[in-house]
Amino acid sequence: MTSKVKSNIMSSVNSHDDELYVSRRSGSRSIKKIIETKVFEGDFRGAVRLLMSDDSFAPGDADTLASLKLKHPDPSRPLSFPPEPDPSITVLSVTVEDVLSALASFYSGSAAGLDGIRPGHLKELVSVSAGENGRRLVGCLTRLANFLLSGSPIFLSAVPEAITSRTQLLLSAQERLKDLSAHVAIILLRMCFALPKITYLMRTTPTWLCPEEVSSFDNALKLVVQSVLNVSLDGPQWRQAALPIRCGGLGVRCARDVGLPAFLASAHGVANLVTVLLGTNGDGGSMPFVSDAVSAWLSLSSDAAIPESKHVQRAWDDIGVKLLQEHLLGGAVGVDKARLRAVSQPESGAWLQAIPSPHLGTLLDDDSLRVAVALRLGCKVCEPHICTCGSMVEADGHHALSCRRCTGRFPRHHALNDIIRRALVSANIPCVLEPPGLSRSDEFVILKVTKGLVKPFFFTVGVPFILLRSRSPTTDI
Question: pTM score, two decimals?
Fold first, then answer.
């Protein structure tokens, strides 16, 4: 009986593994749901790992063995360590106390690296309660840090290939992102696949000296954004989309705009450490490419000044972003200028910062996201046509937001009413939504306590639409 049960269990497990293999290879709906669920829960690293993984169980046959031998061939030369360095050479090194101090400087909630190990994990492993094992781990970390301090630099000739590899990775993610909902895909693109994949390279190498490769990366990024959002972006619209969210963009930054600020901030941030490293060899502490980067920065514009906090990347980036905003505003007129000023307000991009979750009501469907992005960037929303009210609907779709016969006008109005009502109720303020006997202009009756007296007052919801032609002249200042 026991053998029969074990046999049934093993057959069930094997069939499940086969189904998982077929499911992953065929891109079934279950895998997509798992990926979106991980994004809803905030696990972006797990979502990216599932999205980009082609892993499955390999069959145990001769082909698999041959593939392993091809991937790991026998060494063509004897593997022996190079001769030990001259002990008389003085190099920078760290002690056990330095490593412990560095680990203690991390905040408890610091994010993990590529290996998934968080600083909090290391703090626990090297704590006093870890005993002898903790002391051994600290010793190993100290030796590893000293080994890395004697590493070799990356030469300029390797930078183009590194940028090209990241461009290919971005393009390979395009088809997989299209299988997800647009809101989930744009979040993953902004937080995982776009600039985060190239940030370390931009902070450590002179990427601005490789304009062709950087331009190829930005063009690939634009192609993926258009594919995910299903919108067409022209020159000014793409430049606005590449701005930070706080400045009216989508937060999908271009490598061309961030390359110089990232390198200059990184270079000034490690200037003292590099001086110690190179000063011991008599090089005077000079850093390669820094003077070229400063010259390239000052040549961007006559207003491109050097910030006071040179080690802060945002201080450099804000200057470039401001120049780009002024350029966009200078070329915009009328409604477009009103739109640019409106989306630059801090609260206008809050919906882009929210994690998409159907449980919290923050997940937008594909069409709603497309319209929201198009209105934010001034893209084409629809084909020009005549509305049921008799007015002309232009390609920007602004008429639908103020048309009295628009089907979405009343649901949006009721949604705003409900949001404010729930906020008042959560603050323990009595609130009645549209009580009987009131006109349509009086939406709320709430009780206000002032100096011990209970006084009723009325509250109504009104949202002015700044892109109306009757309002844009006052906004276009």
Answer: 0.66
Q: If you ran DSSP here, which 8-state letter would residue 402 be given?
A: T
CA–CA gap between residue 373 and residue 397 (Å, rounded): 12
Look at residue 431 and give its three-state secondary structure. strand
Residue with tokens 């634009």: 222
Beta strands in 339-418 (DSSP E): 385-386, 392-393
Token representation of residue 302:
């006559």
User: Which amino acid is present at 459?
Assistant: F
What is the DSSP pairing of strand 431-433 with strand 444-450?
antiparallel
pLDDT above 80 for 299: yes
Q: What are the φ/ψ torsions at residue 86 (nearest 5 degrees)? A: -65, 120
Closest CA to 292 of 164, 214, 205, 358: 205
Q: Which value, in Å, is the radius of gyration of the alpha carbons in the chain? A: 29
- The predicted pLDDT at position 113 comes to 67
Q: How far apart are CA 253 and CA 239, in angstroms?
A: 9
Cβ contact 336:285 at 8 Å: no
Burial class from Cβ neighbours inside 10 Å (0-12, 13-18, 19+) for residue 240 reads: buried
List of long-range contacts for 106-113, beta carbons under 8 Å, 24+ apart: 112/45
Q: How confident is the model at residue 21 (pLDDT cuts 50, 70, 90)?
A: very low
In which residue are the tokens 């910062």 written? 353
Per-residue burial over 426-459, b if 16 or more Cβ lie within 10 Å, else e, is eeeeebebeeeeeeeeebbbbeeeeeeeeeeeee
- Whole-number Å distance between alpha carbons of 339 and 323: 18
Q: Which of 136, 198, 139 is nearest to 166 (CA)?
A: 198
Domain ranges of the chain: 17-54, 96-148, 158-353
